[in-house]
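Let's practice the habit of predicting before peeking. Look at the sequence and jot down your guess about where helices and strands might fall. Then scroll down.
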Amino acid sequence: MDPVRNPYAPGAGQRPPELAGRDEQLAAFDVVLQRVAKGRPERSLVLTGLRGVGKTVLLNALRSAAVRRQWGTGKLEARPDQGLRRPLASAVHQAVRELGHGQADQVDHVLGVVRSFAQREAGAGAKLREQWSPGIDVPAVRGRADSGDVEIDLVELFTDLGGLAADLGKGIAVFLDEMQDLGPDDVSALCAACHEVGQAGLPVIVVGAGLPHLPAVLSASKSYSERLFAYHRVDRLSRDAADRALSAPAADEDAAYTPEALAAMHALTGGYPYFVQAYGKAVWDRAPRSPITAEDVAVAAPEAEAELAVGFFGSRFERATPAERDYLRAMADAATLVPDGGAGAGEVDPVGSVSTADVAAVLGKKPQSLSPARDSLIKKGLVYSGERGRIAFTVPHFGQYLRQQA
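Done guessing? Here is the structure:
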């Protein structure tokens, strides 16, 4: 098969040629856009899921839908070592520019508020050279979004942004990736701001994406966050959607898969979108001709697995310290069986959810002594705790990779 015509895209955040299995989320968001623009009450959105299920791809697709509605949009990625002010200021600056408001004085006022919000990060009395400029050439508006309390300031910022968008009958959407990495104060402020603009009926929404424990992070910050956001779980693709993700791009290049090849691909990928793209690319390059057969899949599978071992699994494993790697391996060993009596008893758990007590038992240590390693792995985004006393990999099939390496 011609590698130049290979349609698959196994890159981080790259949109696949066929965005299969996400029609429900796209349709729901289109309703949100229309309702908010009409002043109807609607909640902000939160997408949750494991690594490799396409959260970032879906986030970008939702942003494209907002742009088509002529909304102002901005996107940022949260980082554990960075506050919210600077990246959010850059994102909403872009959103204001996209709105295309015709009244220059009103636009300048809101941009001045954005600037004051960003520069307040340096602290009161900071020298000019210590203040960060978000690329806005209007003076900061004093007394607005610059109190130093990020919750107060963010409410004021969103209120002014919403008023500007409402003038045009449009809206502003802020797209926030890796939302679980926000600091506690920033999470609280974001929830408060979304709550305030929702009560005021202003056309500003936040669309966040993060790991499966993100709802718990939000709930711990504000008890009303469970009602503040509409939560959408982004999971692996159904068999039909996974087949379509492979077959539709191939058909565009006058190629096809046999039914046996599609079954073999689903068995290897488990329906996880990133794996679908990675195996699809490898199989296309190895297959001599169309239709692609199960034999072609078997020949190409080791190449795809080797690529995943380095770029998807290995790069994450290398970020862990020796003690953290021991913890990860113990998780893989402890996650070998589904609990007795449950559905699928005796099978390997693909997600790797285990109790922290079982991990400690594998290592022969007390659970309390392993807390530093576990907490560090959570901060690095390698594992997450969906419920008290349990831990799981953020990357599907990571336990399988560790067992194979052993």
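How did you do? The chain is about 50% helix and 10% strand.
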